[in-house]
Amino acid sequence: MTQLALVIDLNVCVGCHACVTSCKEWNTSGTAGPMSDMNPYGEDPTGTFFNRVQTFEVGIFPNTETVHFPKSCLHCEDPPCVPVCPTGASYKRESDGIVLVDSEKCIGCNYCSWACPYGARELDENQKIMKKCTLCVDRIYDESIPEKERKPACVNACPTNARLFGDINDPNSEVSLAIREQGGYKLMPEWGTQPANHYLPRRKTRITIHEDELIRADNPLKKERKLPMPDADDPTLDETTSW
Amino acid sequence: MHPAFSVIFLTTLIGAGQGLYLALYTGQFYSAFKVLPVQDSAQYYVLGSMLVLVLLVAGLVASFFHLGRPERAWRSAACWRTSWLSREVIVLPAFTGAVAAWGLIHYTGWNPHLFTFGGAYEVDLSLLVGAAATLLCFTLFLCTGMIYACIKMLQEWATPLTVINYTLLGISSGFILATAFAAWQDSPLVDFFGGWAVFATILAFATRTASLVRNARIKHKSTLQSAIGIRHAHIKQKAQGAMTGSFNTREYFHGASQPKFRFVKWIFLVLAFPVPLVLLSIGLNTQATSLLLGAFLVQYLGLLAERWFFFAQANHPQNLYYQTV
After folding, report:
1. Angle of CA points B1, B4, B6, to nearest 5°
2. What SS3 state is found at A100?
3. Rounded distance, CA A192 to CA A167, Å?
4. A187: which chain B residues are within 8 Å (Cβ-Cβ)?
5. CB distance from A183 to chain B under 8 Å?
6. DSSP string covering B165-209, please?
7. Residue range B259-263: mean pLDDT, rounded
């Protein structure tokens, strides 16, 4: 069974928020309805986002590292937000594993957002219904778009290619390969939600240099230098070979 | 979690209504088995069931304020197979309807005798309808409690104590109201209701305290490390992706200061249990209806505080992602 997902490489993400803005730009006119902003130019602007980039500082100064952490719906394989929905508005697609909200059925009771441990769902203050990442379901199957671009808007927008998109149940897909070979992991595995989105950890490229690699013990010049002249009574090459 | 007043009123109002119904029906049940004198006054049951209906409908109305799209509320009966919220949406009107039918039987006096039990005890229609309503009543307590107890991520709620507390607090509140109601109606059941009210209140105090003790010692499963998947003892959030708040900062945080939070806990511990118990015992001894009604009202205020605290105390794991702007 197909399970579409994003794999986000924390080693590459630079925290530019291009995924956030491209997501909002594409989805605000998408099938899930507008992503309303309230009071956008006022003192306390707030709005609906499917995707946010957060920043964490790991370590104690001066040995710190800044980790930019894009966060959106993880399209869990066992999504806790789906069974709690009283109307059936919240559902997981059999065909590709995308978790969606039916904007016509949602009553805005917030119960699904309580059940999601990741806080991936947001109530739209304008429409009063629950909104969440759709994995750009209205884009990835759109045949009027060139095939190369049939990916979520955030994946196309990422300037550093930190976001991969594909089927994590296909062992040969780009995402499966990345998860397998680069240590892809799940968020909050303790809840058993089996999030489909994975994160690739920060990686350090280190080389170990040993002392004897800096000072060459076996100087090739010693072997290649001019050999001492043979003694005068030694046989010459011409005398020992028959060529 | 952010305590929503719509849900606070919903749960406390229907809790009181359910408790009051259970009290009235217990009275009828006991009298059917000749343990208590028979309440033959139709007015007593009609007024009583109307009071129950007022509380249930008021709770239902309050619940609509919780919905973003109340006009679609009818849809919420669809997923009763998986959702406790959906089950509550079905059971609440069913219980309301059963209480209405029970009240109507008493009002019209059309109460055919059905069969005789054990040779001496007569079972009539109202007793049977009332039994069905009682079953629905306990199912409603279960549904209401399970809405919260079934979310395992909210560890403060994910315990059988949640269901037990909703049930016992509702019964305590309803029986105190029944005591006041019986006193107002000059019913001989005042002491019967009063005795059970004291018992239920003490029991509810014990189980609510048990949940406070449990939650004080709770160890949260999720940490910032598991939330972002980085193994390091020192992780500090520097940005949460929005500078002036979002749904995530509004819905999952109670927003009250620590002193206020603790104050509410003591307020409910005092108002919901000892104060009504004192008022109840004085009221029962002096037969003062106003004191008994006061006991109910004071406890209701305490229960509002209790429900506020119940929501505020629940610590959602998503809060790990929202620590610093």
Report:
1. 150
2. strand
3. 20
4. 226-229
5. no
6. HHHHHHHHHHHHHHHHHHHHTT-TTHHHHHHHHHHHHHHHHHHHH
7. 96
Distance of CA A156 to the CA centre of its chain: 13
Minimum-distance CB partner of A109 among B85, B246, B316: B85
Is B254 within 8 Å of B312 (Cβ atoms)?
yes
Task: Name the one residue in this structure whose structure tokens are 């920043």.
Answer: A55
Predicted ipTM of the assembly: 0.92
pLDDT value of position A222: 62
Task: Report the relative pairing of strands A163-167 and A4-9 from DSSP bridges.
Answer: antiparallel
Q: Is the peptide bond before A117 cis (omega within 30 degrees of 0)?
A: no
Residue whose tokens read 């800044």 = A66
Rounded-to-integer distance, Cα B29 and Cα A48, Å: 54
Q: Which among B177, B185, B171 has a CA at the least distance from the CA of B45?
A: B185
The answer to whether the CB of B201 falls within 8 A of the CB of A170 is no
Look at the alpha carbons of A154, A156, A160, A163 in this order and tell me if their dihedral is positive or negative.
positive
pLDDT tens digits, one per residue of A3-39: 999 999 999 999 999 999 999 999 999 888 899 999 9
Query: How many other β-carbons are positioned within 10 Å of the β-carbon of residue A10?
Result: 20
**Can you name the residues that pair with A54 across neighbouring β-strands?**
A69
Tokens of A149: 């671009």
Instruction: Please answer whether residues B134 and B174 qualify as being in contact, where contact means their C-beta atoms are separated by less than 8 angstroms.
Output: no
Question: Two tokens at B227?
Answer: 């939330």
pLDDT: which is higher, A231 or B300:
B300
**d(Cα A186, Cα B226) in Å, to the nearest integer?**
9
**Mutate which of A35, A50, A58 to disrupt the B interface (most B C-beta within 10 Å)?**
A58
**Which of B16-20, B41-45, B55-59 has the weakest average pLDDT?**
B41-45
Q: How far is CA B161 from CA B76, B209, B285, in A?
A: 26, 10, 33
**Structural domains present in chain B:** 5-321 (1.20.1630.10)
CA distance B251 to A110: 9
- What contacts 24+ positions apart, CB below 8 Å, involve A202-207? A202/A10, A202/A11, A202/A65, A202/A67, A202/B230, A203/A11
Residues of A in contact with B318 (CB under 8 A): 116-119
Distance between start and end Cα atoms, chain B: 18
> What is the Cα–Cα distance from B197 to B181, expressed in whole angstroms?
13
Q: Which residues contact B279 (CB under 8 A, 6 or more apart)?
A: B291, B292, B294, B295, B298
Structure tokens at B307: 């429900």
Is A117 in contact with B316 (Cβ distance < 8 A)?
A: yes
Q: Which of B323, B318, B305 is nearest to B5 (CA)?
A: B305
Amino acid letter for position B291? L
Cβ B166 vs Cβ B160: under 8 Å = no
CB A178 within 8 A of CB A43: no
Estimate to the nearest angstrom the gap between the alpha carbon of A206 and the chain centroid: 23
- Which residue ranges form the domains of chain A, and what is each CATH number? 4-200 (3.30.70.20)
Alpha helices in A182-216 (DSSP H): 211-214
Which residue do the tokens 């290649």 mark? A224
